Amino acid sequence: MFKKYHIVIFKDRECAHRHLRLRSGWLVLLFLLLVGAVGCNVWLWSHLAKGRTLEHQLMQSQRTVEEQNAQLVAMTE
Length: 77
Known about the structure:
By secondary structure, the protein is an alpha+beta fold. The chain has one helix spanning 24-76, and strands at residues 4-10, 17-23.
């Protein structure tokens, strides 16, 4: 059912190598973890962007309220 994969990493100058043996089950698990990490990052970035947009809107609203308060004070005087 699950195949075995062999990964060989060669070093240039030393003519040495490393040999890794992985079963496909581990590769599937690593792939799913990578997809999950990417998905979480996308979700977090979207919430960060939404928070920044709301913060910008709040600052604009606060400026508008301050301007209106100044106008009301000027009108009452």
